[in-house]
Amino acid sequence: MNVPVESGNSIKRENIHDKVISYYNQTWRQYCLVWLNADNLGIHFGYWDKDTKDHSQSLTNLNREVAKRALDNLKLGARVLDAGSGVGGTAFWLAENYPVQVMGVSIVDKQIDIARHYAKLRGLETKVKFEKQDYHETSFENESFDVIIAIESFCYCYDREKFFAECFRLLKPGGRFVICDGFRAKRGNNEEEALIKNFLICMAADDIDLLTEEEVSAIATKAGFKNLRLDNIQENIMKSHERIYRMSKIFAPISSFLHMLGLRTNVKHNNVLCGIHLWKVLEKGLCFEGIFSGQK
Ligand SMILES: C[S@@+](CC[C@H](N)C(=O)[O-])C[C@H]1O[C@@H](n2cnc3c(N)ncnc32)[C@H](O)[C@@H]1O
Questions:
Q1: pLDDT band for position 193 (50/70/90)?
Q2: Of 5, 91, 122, 152, which is least surrounded by CB within 10 A?
Q3: What is the number of the ligand 1 atom nearest to the C-alpha of 107?
């Protein structure tokens, strides 16, 4: 299954954490410039349907698509864990649209600070909390949550068995998880695998392997989950991928020049190239965006 971190290997875990933290710290300004805004606060690709008017709305739509798989019918005060909460966009949207309390966890201090700032600004401090925690091993008690969601954060999961075991521990009986992320259509040849790797490098996720539906389902089943389902939403995300591809092509030459002069870090430069590498992966149909859900 190519999981790079054996249980208990804290050095590798720290290396992956450092890489992810450094990536989000260095690219925050880029995200602010070309992707998210103070309304949506979404560090994810988005979801387009026939009624979607613009990019910002697509980012909010993805919250809706994830929520409708698990949050309808929840009782007042139900608890949701946002595993890999970024700067809180999804957590705020859920708390504003459902009668729930949300706990967001991220390993990036800066994101926690920004998310707490916006919670205050939006008057959501009592409904939405943020803590710096690793979603593989949280400090929450058994059966603390009704729902666990993870939007584009599962790609940083360095131990899938541990992650699903932790989700199982944290969910109440009947509780649901919903993961929105990239999945593999297949295992490719060397050349195809190199394309996927090039894309993952851009997102600081190259230590982690993407999984096929069969692989991820096997791990979730082993953890005890049932009613598993993976919906392919690539069609609804294509416009966002086209957008990031266009931006990459526009900014790549200037970014390459600055990088060559030593005025731009590898991390920032790779982030600019992300759309180009992603496009090559999509052209060959190697990966797709999916929403994977299951029940305890
Ligand atoms: C692409 S961002 C997505 C943020 C948010 N879900 C959204 O859609 O706006 C990935 C997030 O995963 C978080 N993350 C990565 N590894 C994590 C871990 N081991 N534990 C908790 N959060 C993690 C990062 O800190 C970051 O907030």
A1: very high
A2: 122
A3: 25
Atom of ligand 1 nearest to the CA of 86: 27
Asked whether the predicted pLDDT for residue 240 surpasses 60, the reply is yes
Q: How far is the CA of 152 from the centre of ligand 1 (A)?
A: 7
| Tokens representing residue 203 in the block | 């997102």
Q: Is the pLDDT of residue 1 over 50?
A: no
Q: Kindly report the protein residue whose alpha carbon is nearest to atom 7 of ligand 1.
A: 43
Q: How far is the CA of 84 from the centre of ligand 1 (A)?
A: 3
Q: What is the pLDDT of residue 9?
A: 63
Instruction: Give the start-to-end residue ranges of the domains of the chain.
Output: 10-193+209-235+286-295
Atom of ligand 1 nearest to the CA of 134: 20
